[in-house]
Amino acid sequence: MSIAHPTSPGPSVVVGCTGIVAEGVKRAFGDVRAVDGVTFSAPSGAVTALIGPNGSGKTTLLLVLAGLLRPDAGTARVGGFDIVTENLAARASVGWMPDSFGTWDALTCREILLTFASAYGLSPEAGRRRAASLFEQLHLTEFAERPARVLSRGQKQRLGLARALVHDPCVLLLDEPASGLDPRSRIELRDLLRDLAQEGKTVLVSSHVLSELEEVYDHAVFLSKGRTVEATAVDARTAERGWRLDALDPVALRTFLANAGIPWARSSGGEVIVQLAGTDSAMQLVRAAVAAGVALHTIAPVAGRLEEAYLALDEERK
Ligand SMILES: Nc1ncnc2c1ncn2[C@@H]1O[C@H](COP(=O)(O)OP(=O)(O)OP(=O)(O)O)[C@@H](O)[C@H]1O
């Protein structure tokens, strides 16, 4: 089951890339049912977030979709190809970025990319051009001739992303791609994912750091204990949640809240947190504060929408 981002522009029109469709996919390791009945689709031209707690089966599912792990049951089509019966074609249409990218440490970054380009059937000239453009795009040009072993974790992540993109695949499967990246690289990654979706690619990206995905996702798929689970779309107008408030005069704000009988708590950042029943209540509070002469300059929900949907998952409460 999936929820759509409220500001999602909707998938672009895409020719030739049909996204991901998985039905009843299962995969066990001995007694451990890592993926235990996953059904979802991820359209092309969009970023789909794959969300779930540790051990919920995200990596196993991505490995199955990448054609690297055979499912015990169920079917999945990736880029239009069945991952079991058309495994090679499915794998050729996928760019896979694992959560930690094992490199051949003695090879230079350029040698690594050219090796993958060649394995995917690019001519030497096309491989060189593609590698140069990816190094430029992912700020790795200065490392191109250095052995992979000298790269930092974040630089290795970027090389892993370059490797996933080297054959210009129509489906991208990215497992925790932001881990190890510095703040600027994270922002650039978000922009890159949006650009790739805009080009018509299918982007499926896993993370349990929901703030990473909040600004980039179009759809979200929730996994719990190996299964896709229903996420309740939270009605922002009425759902009770924490709101962060701050005013030019914090003492005046707290006095106003006390007089209005609104309980508050102090956040770690020093602002005031109140529980409000949705945006309607928030607007009422702003009006009342202004009428009372309180110069309120901040009022914002504490959690993002993905976080709310995640916390509202029935499965997670058990
Ligand atoms: N090769 C394996 N052999 C045995 N058990 C495995 C194997 N791979 C995964 N598992 C188990 O399958 C379950 C799902 O693991 P998986 O790595 O897919 O979860 P995840 O959602 O990616 O977790 P995380 O967020 O911590 O990366 C876990 O209980 C894990 O211990």
UniProtKB/TrEMBL annotation:
<dbReference type="InterPro" id="IPR027417">
    <property type="entry name" value="P-loop_NTPase"/>
</dbReference>
<dbReference type="GO" id="GO:0005524">
    <property type="term" value="F:ATP binding"/>
</dbReference>
<protein>
    <submittedName>
        <fullName>ABC transporter ATP-binding protein</fullName>
    </submittedName>
</protein>
<comment type="similarity">
    <text>Belongs to the ABC transporter superfamily.</text>
</comment>
<dbReference type="GO" id="GO:0016887">
    <property type="term" value="F:ATP hydrolysis activity"/>
</dbReference>
<keyword id="KW-0067">ATP-binding</keyword>
<keyword id="KW-0547">Nucleotide-binding</keyword>
<dbReference type="Pfam" id="PF00005">
    <property type="entry name" value="ABC_tran"/>
</dbReference>
<dbReference type="InterPro" id="IPR003593">
    <property type="entry name" value="AAA+_ATPase"/>
</dbReference>
<feature type="domain" description="ABC transporter">
    <location>
        <begin position="20"/>
        <end position="250"/>
    </location>
</feature>
<keyword id="KW-0813">Transport</keyword>
<dbReference type="InterPro" id="IPR003439">
    <property type="entry name" value="ABC_transporter-like_ATP-bd"/>
</dbReference>
